[in-house]
């Protein structure tokens, strides 16, 4: 049996570290975070909906997007770990939510989770027309996980003073040459849009507030989440690569 010898930790505590892919680590106690115990919530939730992806979703939406009841929120990559949390938190805050995903099965999962409109961006003849049909009044918030065409569409359908939350642009992560930017950037001025990027580490100080609000929703079943689980540390590289092709639904995890 292992013990830390540090008075901040007791035997049986669940700890979180940021040391990456490994089966064991020895490090100073200050580099670990002790996780709370929430009845009815499995421990792996702290790697997904109640972990960094959940904090990313909650902080980006609430601190930058500033949702209000009645807003229309457009979420790209809405079936992923971050996107699905954004979409459901926005619903709980009284918003209408439009989400995109890359398969019909993922779109059905979003609908089952209560999302108002789910669009398969791979099969839609026109992503712009599909989003316009789902949000005829335009959008108030765009939560971006994809970039590229999705960002251009979001600018096009944005209402005046809309907030565009730039969390990720996975469509360009493996690009071998610079990608063209949205062709309608001038609308940022004419519509008085706010576009702000962020990294979740900027909001780590809000983790207690995040857990206090989202933890009870998860425990009560008001937020659903999916996991795609690979077995063994040797599967970690393939699991990581799978993120870029959309092979996961929800949080990609590797069980050691």
Spans of 5+ residues with little confidence (pLDDT < 50)?
Answer: none
> What is the global morphology?
globular
> Separation of termini?
18 Å
CATH superfamily of the domain at 52-201: NAD(P)-binding Rossmann-like Domain
**Gyration radius, rounded:** 19 Å
Strand order of the largest sheet: 5-4-3-6-7-8
Percent strand: 15-25%
Please work out how many helical segments DSSP would assign: 8
Under CATH, the topology of the domain at 52-201 is which?
Rossmann fold
CATH-defined architecture of the domain at 52-201: 3-Layer(aba) Sandwich
Q: What is the CATH C level class of the domain at 52-201, in words?
A: Alpha Beta
How many beta-strand runs?
10
Major β-sheet annotation: 6 strands, parallel
SSE order, as H and E?
Answer: EEHEHEHEHEHEHEHEHE
Helix content range: 25-40%
Average pLDDT taken over every residue: 92
What is the topology?
Blueprint: E1 15-16, E2 33-34, H1 52-65, E3 72-75, H2 81-92, E4 96-101, H3 104-112, E5 117-120, H4 127-134, E6 139-144, H5 149-157, E7 158-166, H6 187-190, E8 194-197, H7 207-219, E9 227-231, H8 236-242, E10 251-255
Parallel strand pairs: 3-4, 3-6, 4-5, 6-7, 7-8, 9-10
Antiparallel strand pairs: 1-2
Short description:
The chain is α/β, with parallel strands linked by helices. 30% of the residues lie in helices and 18% in strands. The longest helix has 14 residues, at 52-65.
